[in-house]
């Protein structure tokens, strides 16, 4: 009669041991907060997909949260502060202002929470790593393509994004660097800002096109400014007539590229940016060496190279991992 009792006791002990092991695994599962500049642009969805891929590969948990609009500094600061209070294991931050987010990043580091900066730089040297495109190079590539498309002559304008965004400021500087190489090109406007939304970019673009009617070429440094300018060109009956180079991708921008309304799009690799950022954060928590600067690359997409598998993957990233999130 004692054998069944012993067997039951052994099974109970194994069950307790199993629960203990499961709890240990759960405790070891690192929680990484990933905080984008915004959550509406297609670019951020691709970054999110990359972050989730890393979490899946490593066995971590990604908590994705950012401001709705890319000009809401206070909202992004509050998100960082909330994650510090929640005691996450690590933070990946894509600061929408290179100064305003430095304080919250320092606060996180003071709580022994490693901080990886991604996409756009921050005026703070306490980060684990900076994972991003070489944005100055990306802007230069866009400028070089526009200059060659114009045959090295004509009037061009650049519509900026917004002040405080380090990534786009670098792209804008790279574009202007490239323009200096073309003696026959005159930059007639480079000081107007499109702002954080497509609508604000559209209004600025309308004003620019009315002010500079004989423009030959245009450069815009991100998805929202590119799409805002595209809409303004279409409404003014100038799409396809003015040579236009933009930055980043979406379905509508890809369609415009195929139709000849855009001559090129400078592409980043947002999926890889998200993946490598989370990986760097996890490596730092594990005490592994992490490169201080990780360049995720820049590629120029044109109507001629759309069939290149590498370009196609950048133009239409695989977001299937986000299904149900």
Number of domains: 2
Q: If you average the pLDDT, what whole number results?
A: 92
**How far is the first residue's CA from the last residue's CA?**
53 Å
Could you tell me the number of beta strands? 12
Helix content: 40-55%
Descriptive overview:
The strands form 2 sheets. This protein has a 6-stranded parallel sheet, sandwiched between helices. The chain has a 6-stranded mixed sheet with strand order 7-6-8-9-10-12, with helices on both faces. It contains 11 helices and 12 strands. The protein is elongated, with a radius of gyration of 24 Å. The chain has 2 domains: 30-133 and 269-295, Rossmann fold; 135-267, Response regulator (Rossmann fold). Helix 3 runs parallel beside helix 4. The protein is α/β, with parallel strands linked by helices and 325 residues long.
């Amino acid at each position: 009669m004692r054998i069944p009792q012993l067997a039951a006791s052994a099974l109970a002990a194994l069950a307790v041991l199993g629960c203990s092991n499961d709890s240990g695994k759960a405790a070891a599962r690192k929680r990484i907060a990933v905080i984008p500049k915004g959550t509406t642009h297609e670019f951020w969805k691709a970054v999110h997909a990359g972050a989730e891929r890393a979490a899946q590969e490593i066995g971590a948990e990604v908590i994705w949260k950012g401001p709705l609009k890319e000009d809401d500094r206070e909202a992004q600061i509050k998100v960082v502060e909330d994650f510090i209070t929640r005691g996450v294991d690590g933070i990946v931050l894509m600061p929408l202002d290179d100064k305003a987010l430095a304080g919250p990043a320092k606060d996180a580091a003071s709580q022994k929470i490693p901080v990886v900066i991604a996409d756009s730089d921050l005026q703070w040297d306490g980060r684990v790593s900076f994972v991003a495109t070489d944005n100055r190079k990306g802007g230069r590539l866009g400028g070089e393509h526009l200059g060659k498309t114009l045959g090295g002559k004509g009037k061009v304008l650049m519509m900026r994004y917004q002040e405080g965004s380090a990534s786009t400021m670098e792209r804008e500087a790279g574009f202007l660097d490239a323009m200096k190489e073309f003696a026959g090109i005159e930059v007639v406007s480079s000081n107007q800002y499109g702002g954080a939304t497509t609508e604000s970019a559209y209004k600025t673009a309308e004003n620019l096109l009315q002010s500079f009617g004989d423009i030959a070429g245009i450069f815009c440094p991100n998805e929202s400014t590119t799409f805002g300018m595209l809409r303004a060109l279409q409404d003014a009956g100038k799409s396809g007539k003015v040579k236009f180079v933009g930055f980043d991708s979406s379905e509508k921008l890809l369609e415009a590229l195929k139709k000849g309304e855009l001559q090129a799009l400078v592409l980043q690799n947002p999926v890889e940016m998200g993946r490598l950022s989370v990986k760097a954060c996890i490596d730092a928590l594990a005490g592994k060496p992490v490169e201080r600067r990780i360049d995720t690359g820049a590629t120029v997409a044109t109507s001629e190279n759309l069939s290149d598998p590498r370009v196609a993957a950048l133009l239409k990233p695989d977001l299937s991992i986000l299904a149900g999130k």
